[in-house]
Amino acid sequence: MALDHTGNSDTKARMWVVLRLLQALPAACWQGLVADRECIGAEWFRFLRRQGIRRAVRIRKDTVLDELTANQWFDDLQPGQFGVIAEKAWVFGEWMRVVATRSPLGDLVIIATDFGVWETWRLYKLRWSVEVTFGSYKDRGFDLERTGVTAPKRLERLFGLVTLAWLNCLKVGVWREGQVSIRILAHGRKAMSLVRYGSEFLRNVWRWDLKEKAEVIGVMMSPFLAPGAA
Questions:
Q1: pLDDT digits (tens, 9 = 90+) for 88-129
Q2: Which pLDDT score, from 0 to 100, does residue 2 have?
Q3: What local confidence, expressed as pLDDT, does residue 18 receive?
Q4: In this structure, are strands 33-35 and 55-59 parallel, antiparallel, or unpaired?
């Protein structure tokens, strides 16, 4: 769905997107909504509650919670530690649990949530996969932002095509990783993402190794396994 403006979405735009999603996926099917610090505000939090959607939203350090800022509540938290305000706090007009942790680099992450402490962190960590996906759509991958297309319908079609390409790169990357593991660098992380791995392998097959083309096409046409399936 193409929005009619650039930059971050405002509250009205986010509400419109959620209402569109609810037409296809009722709130009872949602585990919850996870969002970063740009997606805050009393109207937004109230809207989600009224739609029956549970929330796990990162808030800013200067957010006032019962006369203290969020940063003051968790100022003594050490890297790797987790903390929670004992009772629910008044956050943007809603009573919510507030939990926090400090990253190994010292960044304080504070989340207003309708979930328990550990369920909040399990869900919030999944948000990072969204950031990685956006990065591969943009300058670290398909470079979608450089398009000169501005017409909303054409943008939607372009975004759909890029999404299909991204999914196929991911499929091939997962398949290829099962054959030849991605190299691990000195800091313990993989040299590249599964999407990049699949993309590079696809380019190599299409250019030089035509014998594997049929097998790769079969991989791209096969469905993803359901979570937890063997």
A1: 999 999 999 999 999 888 899 999 999 999 999 999 888 877
A2: 61
A3: 94
A4: parallel
CB distance 96 to 116 below 8 Å: no
Give the CA dihedral 40, 44, 45, 49, nearest 10 degrees.
-150
Assign residue 80 a region: left if phi > 0, alpha if psi is -120 to 50, beta otherwise? Answer: left
Domain assignment present for residue 3? The answer is no
Residues 6+ apart with CB under 8 A from 201: 172, 173, 176, 216
pLDDT of 229 above 60: no
pTM: 0.74
Residue 42 sits at the vertex; the CA angle it makes with 75 and 19, to the nearest 5 degrees, is: 125
Dist CA 113 CA 72 (whole Å): 18
Cα gap 173→196, rounded to integer Å = 7
Q: Do 119 and 34 reside in the same domain of the chain?
A: yes
One domain, residues 53 and 157 = no
Helix, coil or strand: residue 204: helix
What does the DSSP assignment read for 102-139?
Answer: E-TT--EEEEEESS-HHHHHHHHHHHHHHHHHHHHHTT
Q: Across residues 29-44, what is the average pLDDT?
A: 92
The total of structural domains in the chain comes to 2
